[in-house]
Amino acid sequence: MQRLLPSTSSSAVRFFHRLSTTPRLPLSLFHPLSHSRAHARPLIMTVPNASSTNGVHKQPQPSSRLDQWMKLDVWSIFTPTAMPPDAINLGQGFMNWAPPEFLQKAADEAMGRVDAHPRGRMRLRSAISEHYSADFSEALGGRKLNPETEILVTAGANEGMYSIWAAFLEKDDEVILFEPFFDQYIPSITFNGGKPVYVPLHPASHAGSASANEWKLDLNELRAAITPKTKQIVVNTPHNPIGKVFTRAELEGIAQIAREHNLLLVADEVYDCLTFDGKQHERIANLPGMWDRTITVCSAGKSFACTGWRVGWLLGPTHLITPSLVATTRIVFCTNSPLQEAVAAGLEQAVSLNFFDEQVARYAEQRKVLTDAFDEIGIPYWVPHGSYFILTDISNIQVPEDYPYPDQIRGRGRDFHVLWWMSQELKVVAIPPSEFYSEEHRAQGENFARFAFCKDVDTLKEAGRRLQGLKKYLKV
Q1: 187-237 pLDDT tens trace
Q2: CA-to-CA distance for 265 and 293, rounded, in angstroms?
Q3: Phi/psi class of residue 237: alpha, beta or left (left: φ > 0; alpha: ψ in -120 to 50)?
Q4: What are the distances in angstroms from CA 280 to CA 128, 238, 271, 390, 437?
Q5: By the 8 A CB rule, do 422 and 359 touch?
Q6: What element of type H or E holds 177?
Q7: Which of 437, 473, 439 has its CA nearest to residue 182?
Q8: Average pLDDT, whole number, for the chain?
Q9: DSSP structure string for 81-146
Q10: What is the separation of C-alpha 198 from the centre of its chain, rounded to a whole number of angstroms?
């Protein structure tokens, strides 16, 4: 029987015969919204000497694909530059400490190197193969990942996913996302002609704090969302913003549907090194029949606390990695070479230094500082078993109705209003998660707030002290 597999987009196919490692390539197609998962900012174009038609000067107009992204997004509104200078930023997911010293040392030693390769430096690809192959032992039958054909180093995980969608989407192809989702998925999909389709994750209905793993996916709703145009499913585990770590049984249910409908699976696993409470990170690509239809996305920034370095990688079979390479070569050509060497050194030394276990222990301590504060205040939350975010329930917080909100907050969800007030009055910044829902479902996220605990303990303790001011605004 002939095996059916996800097909490559026609635009990527046209580049195959020109694939080369020489620098004779077209100009980069990298779009401005992909430069950071943590700091997507809108682009405003001004042209002082615009062309004239019939004596009327007109500015060049941006593409219609940018229409919904020209307004201020959540990252622009809650950017540190728009907050009080003494505010504590628990919004964006970047650390307030430097990467580990052994990684910095390796970066310094590699700084004189200028050579690069679109697939990534061989030392890094070899280190990735050594580090990750055991995680795919069932799929690979005990062999190692081939660093020449099954690994692609990208300019961060975000650009890696953009390259997947550039390689495999045709116009109006549908991509299923589980709500809430990381908001940067949407422009990356739509810029490449795709159409997002949303399936909700449902929170536990009981009162009080609960495990993040109590958010559940209804497989019947997933089946109902599939149409003849459906081409992909995105699975994010550990999950941002919930902190859910999908179980093997949950992933097996998703995998069965993907196999039945011949769908490509994009496995966003950037928080794979950050799981707590004995929860095990399961890789959906390692399940029976899934290696051939899954691309796994990973991030050095999340693994080594160096989010600004923009080093990520894709793992998968040759027939999926090669089209992604074709796309990424035309988007950024390659990512920075010295920091690839540093990340390679990190992967080579991490196990012997017990780095990942010690890092998880530090994050668990930081998580507890925030959850203890929420318990004392009386704010319910979902205990995150992965990532470095805590999703809280702010439905019982009542802020002054006559508060003078700026124009960019008016007309947005309740979470924007509560968290703007909190940032200005209590000087603690969190992110409103209604931005992680589709327009039609945005109200479902208006009673939540996302707090990042990737900050040092002293900072989190001070944030917890400031947040005690919420007590007098809780509904009785």
Answers
A1: 999 999 999 999 999 998 767 889 999 999 999 999 999 999 999 999 999
A2: 6
A3: beta
A4: 20, 10, 12, 19, 27
A5: no
A6: strand 174-179
A7: 437
A8: 87
A9: GGS-TT-EE-SS---SSPPPHHHHHHHHHHTT-----TT--HHHHHHHHHHHGGGGHHHHTTPPP-
A10: 17
Q: What is the pLDDT of residues 161-186, one digit of tens each?
A: 999 999 999 999 999 999 999 988 99
> Which pLDDT does position 357 carry in this prediction?
96
- C-alpha 400/C-alpha 421 separation (Å) is 9
3-state secondary structure 416-464: HHHHHHHHHHCCEECECHHHHCCHHHHHHHCCEEEEECCCCHHHHHHHH
Beta-carbon contacts of residue 260 (< 8 Å; ≥ 6 apart): none
Strand bridging mode 264-268 / 230-236: parallel
Which residues pair with residue 386 across a beta bridge? 275
Question: What is each CA distance from 237 to 115, 398, 462, in whole angstroms?
Answer: 34, 33, 30
362-418 pLDDT tens trace: 999 999 999 999 999 999 999 999 999 999 999 999 998 889 988 888 888 899 999
Which tokens in the block code for residue 189?
């999909």
Specify whether the CB–CB gap between 403 and 426 falls below 8 A: no
Q: How many residues does the chain have?
A: 476
The token duo for 194 is: 């795709």
Please list the alpha-helical segments (H only) found in 133-269. Answer: 137-140, 156-168, 185-190, 219-225, 248-260
Looking at residue 16, its pLDDT comes to: 41
Helix (H, G, I), strand (E, B) or coil at 376: helix
What gap in Å lies between CA 359 and CA 289, rounded to an integer? 33
Give CA–CA dist 450/448, Å, rounded: 7
DSSP assignment of 291-322, as one string? Answer: GGGEEEEEEHHHHTT-GGG--EEEE--HHHHH
Contact between 236 and 182 under an 8 Å Cβ cutoff? The reply is yes
User: What gap in Å lies between CA 419 and CA 432, rounded to an integer?
Assistant: 7
CB 357 within 8 A of CB 208: no
Cα separation, 457 vs 370, whole angstroms: 9
Q: Which two tokens stand for residue 183?
A: 């908001």
- Is pLDDT at 29 greater than 70 in this prediction? no
Half-sphere exposure of 305 (CA within 13 A, CB side): 23
The amino acid at residue 194 is G
Model confidence, pTM? 0.86
Q: What is the mean pLDDT of residues 339-351?
A: 94
Angle (CA) 250 255 258, round 5°: 135
The span from the CA of 77 to the CA of 406, in Å, is: 10
- The better pLDDT of the pair 44, 7 is held by 7
